Amino acid sequence: MRKPPHPGNRSPEKDCPVCRQIRRFLLGAGFLLVMMWAQPQWELPAGFDYGTLVGDLFLAAFVLVFGWKYYRYRQEKKASSSQVKPIQPSDAPPR
């Protein structure tokens, strides 16, 4: 039996964004649990400071996401400001 769609979902064929995100998280967590259970004997190559490498990757990801969000914010602000009608002298309230 098929479950009914989410009430906020407009299309019965598609899942809501939260459902998709939860499903992705569970798939990733399941993969991680399987890898922890299997305990592969992988070893990282010597000669790298992996703590610093992971920190630098997180910093780069943060800078990229911040830049992208700021760019989108500026684009939306520009689009909304171009839709605002300037006040004409004839539209001004009487004094």
Q: What does this 3D model show about the protein?
A:
The protein has 95 residues and is an all-alpha fold. The chain has helices spanning 17-38, 50-82. The model has no long low-confidence stretch (mean pLDDT 82).
In short:
The protein has 95 residues and is mainly α. The chain has helices at residues 17-38, 50-82.
Question: What descriptors fit this protein?
Answer:
flat; mainly alpha; 95 residues
Number of strands: 0
Counting DSSP H or I runs of 4 or more residues, the number of helices is 2
Determine Rg (CA atoms, Å): 25 Å
Unreliable spans: none
Average of pLDDT: 82
Strand percentage? under 5%
Q: By helix and strand content, what is the structural category?
A: mainly alpha
What level of helicity do the residues show? 55-70%
Q: Describe the sheet with the most strands.
A: none
Distance between the termini: 68 Å
Query: What is the chain-wise order of helices and strands?
Result: HH
State the shape: flat
How are the elements arranged and paired?
Layout: H1 17-38, H2 50-82
